[in-house]
Amino acid sequence: MRELSGAVAGARVSDFIALLKPRVMSLVVFSGLAGLVVAPGHIHPLIAAVAVLCIAVGAGASGAINMWYDRDIDAVMTRTRNRPIPKGNVDPNEALGFGLVLALFSVVLMGMAVNWTAGSLLAFTIFFYVIIYTMWLKRRTPQNIVIGGAAGAFPPMIGWAAVTGDISLASISLFLLIFMWTPPHFWALSLYREGDYAKAGVPMMPVVAGARSTKIQMLVYTLVLLPIALVPAVLGVAGSIYAVTALLLNIGFITHALRVLGSSDLRRAQAMFKYSLLYLSLHFAVLMIDRAPGLLHIDSLSGLIDPAWLHMLVG
User: Fold this and answer.
1) Looking at the whole model, is its pTM more than 0.90?
2) What is d(CA 313, CA 36) in angstroms, rounded to the nearest whole number?
3) Which domains does the chain have, with CATH numbers?
4) Whole-number percent of the chain with pLDDT over 90
5) What pathway is this protein a component of (predicted)?
6) DSSP conformation class of 153
7) Spatial contact of 231 and 173, defined as CB atoms under 8 Å apart
8) For 245-260, what is each residue's pLDDT tens digit?
9) 3-state secondary structure 116-143
10) For position 84, what pLDDT does the model report?
11) How far apart are CA 164 and CA 308, in angstroms?
12) Cβ(7)–Cβ(89) under 8 Å?
């Protein structure tokens, strides 16, 4: 059932903002900005701002179209039933039109104002999230998050391409960090929201494979994620500060996964979900600080402080 009963009584601005999934957008923008900051080369501040705006608008467009398509299951799930369409605040067709206009605007502006490599990546990201994840995978397979997570992993590559105009092994390493982080992040959420997903008929891993199997897979992903998180430092995208931080953050992630595996207390899964948000945010924050021009410039794992910066400190 795609349509929802009830008349729409005039949407407010706040309803259309909610369609953009601002909390999800903030993490997307932050990781896209990180890709832009650490990319080699130079970009005019105004063009950089346009690139970040396009990433934000593209993410919001994806969220709006996702809410249009998922309005039936959103109305069933406790976590999503207060979204603008299930509440009757926004007409589904208006939400779809809003999302499509924003998607077209973001891609065209990115291509014309920045470069078409970044524009093409943004277009593919929107396509992947809307068509591959939302319309194809989400309701059909417990691997929905594993494959569909790629959509959320593209923003650093888009930011990188905005500066360089290309795709490199370094930008792919940033993609892989988010791609491998996504399953344990969302499965932690789905463990304590299992009833919601079961009621809506969404085949999340705990619903299909059970909690024990899901917890084991979460631990495996966190173990695999540790070396992947260190790849940016190995490739020279980041230095020692990032490497040490990534190591500590991944030990923390693995510890959370072990606690979830060894306990039936759903609060453990909720704590892991919250930690996963901090985990990714700190990775990209430290990545940008590590490579901040004029402050820290770390070329390899062997150097902690740039000599020129140290000389400035001691006068």
Assistant:
1) no
2) 28
3) 1-167 (1.10.357.140), 181-315 (no CATH)
4) 83
5) Porphyrin-containing compound metabolism; heme O biosynthesis; heme O from protoheme: step 1/1
6) H
7) yes
8) 999 999 999 999 999 9
9) HHHHHHHHHHHHHHHHHHHHHHCCCCCC
10) 95
11) 27
12) no
